[in-house]
Structure formats: structure tokens, C-alpha cells
Amino acid sequence: MARTGADLWRPVSVKIVLALVMFATVPFLVYDQFRAANDQTNRLLVASSEVQGRLIAEALRPRLEKADREAMAALAEMVGRLGGVGPDIKLLFRPAAVPGANFFYVASAPRVSAAWLEGERREFDRLGVLSRLDATCAHAGTVGFRYTNPDGATELLTSLTAISTAAGCWVVITADHSSDALGTGLGQPYWRTAAVRGATLIYLAMAVAVLALLVQVWVGLRRFGRLARALRTGDAGRSGFAASNSIPELTWVAGEFDRLVDGLRASAEALRFAAEETAHAFKTPLGIIAQSLEPLRRRIGDDPRGLRSLELIDRSLERLDGLVTAARALDETLADTINPPLERVPLSDLVADLVAEYSEAHDPAAIRFAAGIDPGCVVTGASPLVEVVLQNLLDNAVSFSPAGGTIEVGLRVRPKVAELSVADQGPGVAPDTLERIFSRFVSLRESKGPPAPGQDGGMPVKSPAHFGLGLWIVRRNVEVMGGVVAAENRPDGGFRVVVALPLAEP
Fold first, then answer.
1. How confident is the model over 267-324, as pLDDT tens digits?
2. What is the pLDDT of residue 136?
3. Residue 439 needs a FRET pair 20 to 30 A away by CA distance; which of 2, 80, 171, 477 works?
4. Which residues lie closer than 8 Å to 317 by C-beta, 6 or more apart?
5. Same-domain check for residues 353 and 479
């Protein structure tokens, strides 16, 4: 049967997979959007830092353009004043009179040693900061990146402003090592920012919590399923759903399942007890009636009408006795289907033994049995149920087989199933009745009884030995064991019933 869209979304395993897909996809969907917003923020911060750097450079420009001894002496003091209220400031100079000269430090705020400044200059050279200034002293690069100063601390280079004078090229560099500056996304990949890392930890914690909840529910349901199978197969012992449950929210569900199992077991026992009691209650008066007929036989003598009446009474008693037996078998079958103890059944041995018994019980001249059995076939089922299935199939085949006919019994191991077939050489079944033969109280056997009083011909009378329960019991037993049964007319004449039972796991 085709599954609808709603059916596909119902399993918990599908929801777990869907949650995994969502948790894996959502970060990729929102990451680019947040990164774009972060880039926009970083551009604003860089622009603000560059404006600040240009303001500092413009404040120093009058002194830098003079470049005389007095101006040079005042630069350190002025840089110190400007650096006391904002970012760190480094002032570098490359003289125009010396072709190919390197930049050297003129002043810094806060003040540091010459060795410290030289170490920072080498770091700038390594990062290519100063090489971004071409021969005309024009700034041709970007700022807003991180570097490590000689003390091993991280700083953020916020601006680089070049001023070209007659004396040479001046560079004003501003850097910030405050936590506020380093806490931004400037100079590092977006995924390494504190915000992204914090959000990632929260997201992962949420994902783990949700998935753990779904997995716990799924595992709990699987545990319930294994226990239900164990209860059905008789391997659970005294275990119950409540004892195996580890999820508090499912406690009441487990309790209801336990009460349901107890109710089914009680119902099965009640059916078996009622079958015994009902059969005993009916058979006792039938036996009394049968015994009471003997005096009547002696008094009637040879009276034809009296003998005919006694014969009809005998036939009715025999039919009633058969009906009582059939009703008992029906109740017992229903009880077995409610709580069948499943186990490993050596089907090859069981079929071989039953075929041998039937061969010995029947005259080979009247009917023969031919068996083709794959060895070592073991199925999951119940020996009593399997035995009843095979007995009913053999009895059905015997009743329809012609004199001298052959009943063929086959057992073949197929992928995941054992295929049991019983075929006869009888008249077969009308195609329009194939679906009905497995129904309850449906029998196609008819025989002619003795002529009714005042009639020349006979009347159809159903054989008292058959009440249309044999194949119905076959189907019920097979389905209870997880198998299927089908019937067909053989192309060369006769009838075949095929039963497929699940193979037992190794």
C-alpha cells in the first residue's frame, strides 16, 4: 500500500534526521548574513579609526613640515600629549636625502625603549605595513589588522597616515590594545570573534539538548518494541514495560502497556477456560441423549419411519458434537492468537515427522505422500501452531485427493522466509471462491445424505467432520507467527496452499 506524505513524517527517526539537517543547515544560512553585518560594522570602525589617525597627523603636520631641530625636539612631547587621551601613536620617518633608506622611529606614545621600537618595526616590515607606502609616500594599503608586539601582546593597527614633506616621508601609525578594540571583529575571521564563539556554544548546547531528547524518546520506544517482541515470543520472563522504562514522562504509558498485557493474558486464559467449560456443558446432555436412544431402538424394531427418525437424530447428534468440537477449537485458536509464545521451530524436522506419520496412517494404494524438504530450516513461530497448520493442510488435501492420488509437500528456504507448500490432485477450487476459503465457517464439501421421508432423491448434507474452520485456523496461526498464506489452482490440475514463515535469526 502506498504511503502518504503524513505517514512519512510520523516516525521519530525521521524527525531526528530532520532535526540534524536543520541544525546543520541553519548556521550556514545565517552565517553569511551575520558576517555581512559584521563586515559593515568593521568598515565603519576602520573609517572612524582612519579619521582619528588623520586628525592626529594633521595636528602634527605643522611640526613635521618645519623639520628643523627645534620642531623635531618638540615632536616627542606633542606625540606624548596626543597619545595620552587615545590610541597608541608611533611616528616614523624616511629621509628623502638618503635614497633607499628605511623608516626609523622618531617618537611614540606611550614611550618605549629603542630596542622595543626596533622589534616592532621589524614586525611591521614582516607584515608589509611599511612597504604599502610607495615612493611618493602615498598610502596604498588597508589597516584594521592584528599583530604581535615585542612583549608578545596582540595589538590592533587602526590607522596609517602618510605625510609627504620636503624632508621626507612621515608616517603616523595608531594602534589599540584595549579589550574593547580587540573584542571587535577587526583583523580576524568572523568565526573567531567572541560573539560567534559564544553563539556557537549556545547553539551546540541547544542542538545537543534537542537531539538528546529525541534520541532518548527513540531509544525508549525501541526498548518498548524489543520488550513487546520478547513478551510475544515468551522471552521476557517477568520483565515489564515499567521496569524497563528510563524516561519519567513515559512512566504512565509503560504502566498502561503492562496493564494491557496483563489484560490480554487474562483474556487468553479466560477463553481457554470458557472453551473447556462450554464443551463440557454441551457434551454432557449430548451423551445423555445418545444413551437414551438405545431403548427407543429396541422398542421401534423394524418400523421404517421410526428407524428413519432415529437415523436423523443420530446424524444431528453427530453434527452437534462436531459443532461443539469446532467451537472449542475456535476458542482455543483465538486464545492462542492473543498470547502466542514464539520460539525457534526446526521446521524441516517437524514437516518430515508429520509427513511420515500421515504416510503410515494411509494406505499407499489409496493415497501417496511425496516430500521435498530443504534440511536445516528453522523458523520463528510456535511448534503447536505450526503443527496445527500442517495437519489442517494435510487433512484438507487428503479429503479432496482422488483414489490413488499423490499429495506433494514441499519446504524451501527463500530469502528471509521458509516456504511450505501442500498440493493435491483434487478438483481444485472455483476461481471466484479462492478468497473465501480462508474465511470462518466456509466449507465447499457437500455430500448426499439419505433420502428424506417422502422423497425419492437425496438432499445435500454437509459432512459433520468439516465445518469450515480448518483453513481459517491455518490463516490465523500463520498470521500470528508473522507469516502469510495463499492458495491457488495448479495449472495441471489440483490445488495448492503455500505458507511463508519468517526464518529465525542465526
1. 666 666 566 666 656 666 767 777 777 777 777 777 787 777 877 787 777 777 666 6
2. 65
3. 2
4. 286, 289, 290
5. yes
State whether 163 and 90 are in the same domain.
Answer: yes
DSSP string spanning 370-395? EEEE-TT-EEEE-HHHHHHHHHHHHH
Q: Is pLDDT of 98 > 90?
A: no
SS3 110: coil
Mean pLDDT of all residues in 479-490: 88
**Structural domains counted in the chain:** 3
pLDDT bin (cut points 50, 70, 90) of residue 349 is very high
pLDDT tens by residue, 147-176? 888 888 888 888 888 888 888 888 888 888
**How confident is the model over 236-279, as pLDDT tens digits?**
555 676 777 666 766 767 777 777 766 666 666 666 656 666 66
Question: pLDDT tens digit string along 459-472?
Answer: 333 333 455 677 88
User: Which DSSP string do the residues of 315-370 spell out, in sequence order?
Assistant: HHHHHHHHHHHHHHHHHHHHHHHHS---EEEEHHHHHHHHHHHHHHHS-TTTEEEE
Reported as type and span, the H/E element at residue 172 is strand 168-176
> What does the alpha-carbon distance between residue 163 and residue 65 come to, in Å, rounded to a whole number?
9
Kindly state whether residues 282 and 412 are assigned to the same domain. no
Contacts (Cβ under 8 Å, ≥6 apart) of 71: 63, 64
Which residue from 72, 146, 84, 130 is spatially nearest to 109, judged by alpha carbons?
Answer: 84
**Cβ-proximal residues to 207 (8 Å cutoff; 6+ apart), any chain:** 19, 23
Domain match, 358 and 489 both: yes
pLDDT of residue 282: 63
Cross-sheet strand order for the sheet of 367-373: 367-373, 405-414, 417-424, 495-502, 484-489
By residue range, what is the domain housing residue 42? 12-192
Beta bridge partners of 367: 405
Residue 201 lies in a domain: no
Query: Which whole number is the average pLDDT over 126-145?
Result: 69
